[in-house]
Design a protein that fits this description.
This protein is mainly β and about 140 residues long. The chain has a single domain, classed as Irregular (Factor Xa Inhibitor). About 5% of the residues lie in helices and about 50% in strands. It contains 1 helix and 8 strands, in the order E-E-E-E-E-H-E-E-E. A 6-stranded antiparallel beta barrel has the order 1-2-5-8-7-6. A two-stranded antiparallel ribbon has the order 3-4. A hairpin with an 8-residue loop joins strand 7 and strand 8. The two termini are about 30 Å apart.
């Protein structure tokens, strides 16, 4: 668990207006892996590996759906698995100073998995997998908008 209050928000068009979809409960390791390319050419006795492109691995987490949003939640979540690219913002609460803004990170990505579990009490969770465009990953700076 990464703690209470970590929110995830999405935007279909720009990183200026987001819709909160819930809280992140459990977050797997965020991995950046460099591909290995075969650099062998005629005359080599042994296979020669070469460094390739960097690739973000899918971000896997458990999502606690936002309740009481006033929207038809089925349509919101159905829209997420269309394969469209979204701007995504993850907000971490500032636990040391409630007067300051939460720390947040933004990036573009798309949802490749959204599995809804059987509700427990009034909570609905989903196993989510998110593909990240690492070229857009940045710390959120409200002054830049």
């Amino acid at each position: 668990m990464i703690g209470n209050g970590v929110h995830i928000e999405v935007s279909t068009s720009s990183p200026t207006s987001y819709t909160e979809i819930g809280q992140i409960l459990e977050l797997d390791e965020i991995s950046l892996i460099r591909a290995v390319v075969d650099g062998t050419y005629h005359g080599h006795t042994y296979k020669r590996p070469e460094p390739g492109m960097l690739e973000w691995q899918p971000l896997s987490f458990t999502l606690l759906h936002k309740s009481g949003s006033g929207q038809n939640s089925d349509s919101v979540y159905d829209e997420l698995v269309t394969g469209n690219w979204y701007w995504i913002r993850v907000r971490f609460p500032d636990t040391e100073n409630s007067a300051t803004q939460d720390e947040a990170y933004e990036f573009q990505g798309f949802f490749s998995k959204l599995g809804v579990t059987v509700p427990r009490e009034d909570e609905i969770t989903s196993a989510v997998e998110l593909q990240i465009d690492g070229n857009t990953l940045a710390k959120y700076d409200p002054a830049s908008y």
